[in-house]
Predict the 3D structure of the following.
Amino acid sequence: MAKMDKEIMDLLNDPKSSKVLATIGADGFPNAVPVQSLAAVDERTLAFTVVAITKTKYNLLENAKISAVAYQVPPKGCQVKGAFTGFVTSGEIFDRMSAMIEKVLKIKVYEVGIIDVVDVFPLQLGKAPEAAPEKAVTISDVEVKPLYTPADISDLNYSRDLGYPGNYPFTRGVYPQMYRKQPWTQRLVSGFGTSEESNERLKYLTAHGETGLNVVFDLPTHYGLDSDNELAEGEVGKEGVPIDSILDMDSLFKDIDLGNVSTSLITNYLTVFSYYVAVAQNRGIPIEKLAGTTQNDACTSFAGAKVAVVPIRPHMKLSLDIVEFCARHMPRWNPVSVVGYHYREKGCNAIQEIALTLCSGIAYLNAGIERGLSVDQFAPRLSFFFGAHNDFFEEIAKFRAARRLWARIAKERFGAGDPRSWRMRFHTQTAGCSLTARQPMNNIVRTTIQALAAVLGGTQSLHTNSYDEALALPTEESVEIALRTQQIIAHESGVTSTIDPIAGSYYVEHLTNTLEKLSWEIIEKVDKLGGMIEAIEKGWVENEISDASYRYGRSIEKGDRVIVGVNRYERPDENITIKLLKIDPALEKKQLQRLEKARSMQNGRTVKSALEKVKQSAKKNENLIPAVIEATQAYATIGQIFDVFRDVYGVVKWR
Amino acid sequence: MTTKRKIRVLIAKPGLDGHDRGALFIARALKNAGMEVIYTGIHYTPKMVVEAAIQEDVDVIGVSILSGAHTTIFEKIFRFLKEKKAEDIPVIAGGTIPPDDAEELKKMGVRAVFLPGTDTADVIRLVEKIVH
């Protein structure tokens, strides 16, 4: 049995309170009547007198259940549920009650009803939804109202703020037909072991319906180290595919028609790109037919993925070599994929992700122009790369806001005239950082929600993570589910049937406006710091990300944000039993043999003169790609080529 | 009156791995728990990690690896610790480390392996337990 506390008893005994008794009639209808005599006798007992409340009396004789309410304005009240035990006509309670009633209400009392308290509920009266007890926020801490209405987007102007798909400012998508014409490209990152295992994986995915290739390289390759370098030990083939020489690039794309495929190369240097172009040339494929993307973003190399060999300025120069080379020779290649994904993975929020990505894009537009290209000569081929995190609507709004901002930046700030320069085309990867090691199958569901956000946000290509990636590189089984996830969204869900189905949502349009405004404030801050490169050099970018990462991480640890299986619905006895990909240590030895083979194929004099040419070209500040391609065709190893860069440009110092 | 020395922890990121979110996070959490934290930054070799640990006289070495190169790197760290007669410095690990490999690392001498999603309170408790 519940007890009433003093506050509730005082409320019940206060003559200023309004009091109501509800009983249940024989017909099943509740019967509520004002009963001003209701009082709390002790913490377990209520009493009332019966004056002209005949219906209540009859009801109680049939059904003892009773509910009593006392309330005051401003809102304060309680409900007490109880069981009627009977009427008394004498005794202590009768005397006390009748004395009180006769004094206050000036009426004679004949009997007093007694109620045993069963349950007590303090009332929360009269609160509007606006003042809901718990504030809701997005992952990026944007406050979310319980309800959005036309009033929230009353100043939205369709042609100015949204436009038709394929039209400025591209909020609704970069192409007029979007997925009605062609679904996004399904590209799953692949690369492990040696080029032979990776080639098998590429073919496996293509056979299962993948529509584009996406290759990641191992860390020694990223850092321009031959696989037998001391620093490479244990790293070969672990985080991607090793490329030591043109032999590896050739075997990576064995049986794959480079003239008829779209390949994304996750690399930040022109060396890997040059190996790829050289393989195509050796196969007799005209390089203008090559379609694909190099990540090639100097900004992320320093502040995001942290994969850099030479200092940031020469890194930017090498990066621009690809931009310039493609502008002149490879019209179907995206020379830069401006990265926001890595900043998000490092822990920034969606607003910072938009801002840092666009600031990097601005840095590239400036650099290309400085190189002597006109903005319309290369801006149409810039592409972008975002993450898709857990907050479904915020992610959709993020993509839309980023597209609109980029269109305005390219057109208004840089005076681009070609509409293709205004279009932000982007690749999306579901958020690796959202994957949990515990209850790993839940990651399939997370990835699905994230992928759906990317699709509703209008992505051009998509990588979906596999459920096991918080523990290891994915197996064939897990990667197949990741691919099927995209196929189910594309072919079963119906979301591709109409273009940009989310437009006009009061919430999403409002959130799009909010994210645009907040990220613009950060862009202006970076402008004041002198631009993205300067902001990176000053350490500002990394500090901002690190602070945001800490805030986010703490909000999970404090339980402010729920991660299923991690801080809610955990299974303390959980053992991780899923099958994981094991990379055979023998593959590292196999790669060392492949490297030896390339070295044995070198003609000492030819390779030396090719490397010397790269060096001279670097010293003269020429575009290095022709010289590097020549070196790759002379079987120069990646370490040999990077040694030239390290020699000429120096080596990056990490803070 | 004696003042108790603060617990000193080296947070290291050996190898070529650039994934430093976890390392930075744990470094900050340990610092906020009142410990002295020395963070190496990325691209330390195993030898440099051991040298830094000895030079900084740390109570615990925390190693973060998300590149898959953990087995090789920990073998080297323990080899150098032995060479420098510093095997008594406890080592803990964090990162994307499959359970089978985690067992292998524990056999080598790693005291605990923390996976993504670990609450830093658990790490703090473990470090305090190891040291005291």
Notes: Chain A has a mean pLDDT of 94. Residues 506-529 of chain A form the longest helix (24 residues). The interface with chain B takes residues 219-220, 222-223, 225, 231-235, 238-239, 305-307, 345-347, 433, 435-438, 469-473, 546, 549-550, 553, 557, 563, 566-567, 575-576, 580, 582-583, 654-655 of chain A (CB under 8 Å). Residues 332 and 502 of chain A are 31 Å apart (CA to CA).
